[in-house]
Write a structure and sequence with these properties.
7 helices; Undecaprenyl pyrophosphate synthetase; 43% helix; binds 3-methylbut-3-enyl trihydrogen diphosphate; alpha/beta; 239 residues; binds magnesium ion
Amino acid sequence: MEIPRHVAIILDGNGRWAKSRNMPRNYGHVKGAANVEVICRAADDLGIKYLTVYLFSTENWRRSQDEVKALMKLFHSYTRTAIRQARENNMRCRVLGKEDELDDTLRKNLRELVESSRNNTGLNFQLAINYGSRDEIVRAVRKLSEDVKTGRIGDPSQITEETISSYLDTADIPDPDLLIRTSGEMRLSNYLMWQLSYAELYFTKTPWPAFSKKDLELAIEEYNRRTRRYGGLKKGEED
Ligand code: IPE
Ligand code: IPE
Ligand code: MG
């Protein structure tokens, strides 16, 4: 079986999962955060090299103040746990998203997570937090424009697809091969829109807190049944 090198996940359905158990939404977020580690281990076991999870979108600030507050509090404790898990499981962690809107403690934790795991050689784990594709592109274009202005990029005609990729938060990370979205919605919700151009898309009704290693294996089985195409040619037959 071919294992996708990079799997991206939109972890959705925490709230509905909790509601179906007559529990508050935040209970779903707590269980959902705990499940992230389970799936990191599963991904590593299966030989996946890059795993990118969507934890909080630039649009998620629109939720009730109470929910946003509870999520930020959860991210504080989750990032502390992640620092330990990265060490124990040899994971290299990176953060995607607009850092400057996060509070100081969370930013400090995220920096520590990235710095302390920099030399780890196992699973590459990306946390998308306060992430939105459109925001990522805006930030990239601003930086690129600065570099044209200062002459680091001599002429706009030098700008290629590779240049743009290198200005995104995912610079140096290969594009996802497989996108999984849990809990039944079939949209991208502003996730990795540039990077997912040729990914296989997989949607499952299973809500995130219930998503297991078995479900990840099912997604990879389905991925193997797909004939990946790139510009109308089967992958590997490009030449
Ligand atoms: C995903 O679960 C977690 C976040 C987006 C933070 P949701 O909170 O979106 O749960 P549902 O989709 O409302 O059930
Ligand atoms: C997408 O889920 C964002 C994350 C998983 C962090 P949402 O539940 O916020 O997306 P919409 O609102 O259903 O599109
Ligand atoms: Mg949702």
